[in-house]
From TrEMBL:
<keyword id="KW-0813">Transport</keyword>
<feature type="repeat" description="Solcar">
    <location>
        <begin position="99"/>
        <end position="192"/>
    </location>
</feature>
<dbReference type="InterPro" id="IPR018108">
    <property type="entry name" value="MCP_transmembrane"/>
</dbReference>
<keyword id="KW-1133">Transmembrane helix</keyword>
<feature type="repeat" description="Solcar">
    <location>
        <begin position="1"/>
        <end position="90"/>
    </location>
</feature>
<keyword id="KW-0472">Membrane</keyword>
<dbReference type="InterPro" id="IPR023395">
    <property type="entry name" value="MCP_dom_sf"/>
</dbReference>
<dbReference type="GO" id="GO:0005743">
    <property type="term" value="C:mitochondrial inner membrane"/>
</dbReference>
<keyword id="KW-0496">Mitochondrion</keyword>
<keyword id="KW-0812">Transmembrane</keyword>
<keyword id="KW-0999">Mitochondrion inner membrane</keyword>
<dbReference type="InterPro" id="IPR051508">
    <property type="entry name" value="Mito_Carrier_Antiporter"/>
</dbReference>
<dbReference type="Pfam" id="PF00153">
    <property type="entry name" value="Mito_carr"/>
</dbReference>
<feature type="repeat" description="Solcar">
    <location>
        <begin position="202"/>
        <end position="293"/>
    </location>
</feature>
<comment type="similarity">
    <text>Belongs to the mitochondrial carrier (TC 2.A.29) family.</text>
</comment>
<keyword id="KW-0677">Repeat</keyword>
<protein>
    <submittedName>
        <fullName>Solute carrier family 25 member 35</fullName>
    </submittedName>
</protein>
Length: 298
């Protein structure tokens, strides 16, 4: 039940944040491996990107990749948050009754690694679909998928079962770092807010406040890994299924840093927070409240 409740919470958040994921993906692919000032800027900022995509691709364009997005959230966060919930309820992350930073970070990272690997094929398809745009505002490589099932079948047909896990070398560090930062800061903040007695015991405001603190930490830690992950998943591949732009995580990281500078690793930071921030807050709030509701009525 921990896995189901965790997946439901993540899907609830995804319904509201998927348009921000589309914007974030486009902004991270814009000017890929090009120096500043040498490429066409289609998306000047988060709000301009929203307007541009809505105007050119229509309102539906802002919800591209929603189906794989929901499936990915249910699988990845169901496994990730569900695993962490089990570890947390067993008392492992605490030492002498208090949240241990080391134990919580390790537990969050391990839960993230498992969730990221299991959800990687769906994340691959989601990235492809979200990057697809009308040619006048297209950025990054354009895959011609008609939908999630067509994309999965096409990738499997061309590159075999392992082709579906292309890009997982970036997904694992991305989610493990983000998961460790998110779950540790959430657990520690919840403990601190509870001890300070800022809100009544068991109040949903405790989860909300803790989620807000966690959202800042996760975006700061995760964005460089997120940029690399988006580019690895979206890059074109040759007939053998090997990437044509990057050999792997470290190659993409170093090339981006060399060509675009440190700021290149933080492309789409505003979009990342507008997407990851609310998603973190809403999913952790729903996750905590659903678990409390289930325990109360089970």
């Amino acid at each position: 039940m921990d896995f189901v409740l965790s997946g439901m919470a993540a899907c609830g958040a995804c319904l509201f944040t998927n348009p921000l994921e589309v914007v974030k993906t486009r902004m991270q692919l814009q000017g890929e491996l090009k120096s500043r000032g040498t490429y066409q800027v289609y998306y000047r900022n988060v709000f301009h990107a929203f307007y541009t995509i809505g105007k050119v691709d229509g309102i539906a364009g802002l919800q591209k990749g929603l189906v794989p997005g929901l499936v990915y959230q249910f699988v990845m966060n169901g496994v990730r948050l569900g695993s962490y919930a089990i570890i947390e309820s067993s008392g492992y992350i605490q030492t002498d009754g208090k949240v241990s930073a080391v134990k919580s970070i390790v537990a969050g990272a391990i839960a993230g690694i498992v969730g990221a690997y299991m959800g990687s094929p769906i994340y691959l398809v989601k990235t492809h679909l979200q990057s697809q745009a009308t040619s006048s505002i297209a950025v990054g490589h354009q895959h011609k998928h008609r939908g999630m099932l067509h994309a999965l079948a096409d990738i499997h047909k061309q590159h075999g079962i392992m082709g579906l896990w292309r890009g997982s070398s970036a997904a694992i560090p991305r989610v493990s770092v983000g998961s460790a930062a998110q779950l540790y800061t959430f657990s520690a903040s919840k403990e601190l807010v509870t001890n300070l007695q800022l809100f009544p015991e068991g109040s949903w405001l405790i989860s909300l406040t803790s989620g807000m603190v966690s959202s800042v930490a996760v975006v700061s830690a995760m964005t460089p890994f997120d940029v690399v992950s988006t580019r690895l998943y979206n890059q074109p591949v040759d007939h053998l299924g090997k990437g044509e732009l990057y050999r792997g995580f470290s190659d993409c990281f170093s090339k981006t840093l060399k060509k675009e500078g440190f700021t290149g690793l933080y492309k789409g930071l505003g979009a990342s927070y507008f997407r990851l921030g609310p998603h973190t807050i809403v999913s952790l709030l729903l996750w905590d409240e659903l678990r409390k509701f289930y325990k109360k009525h089970s």
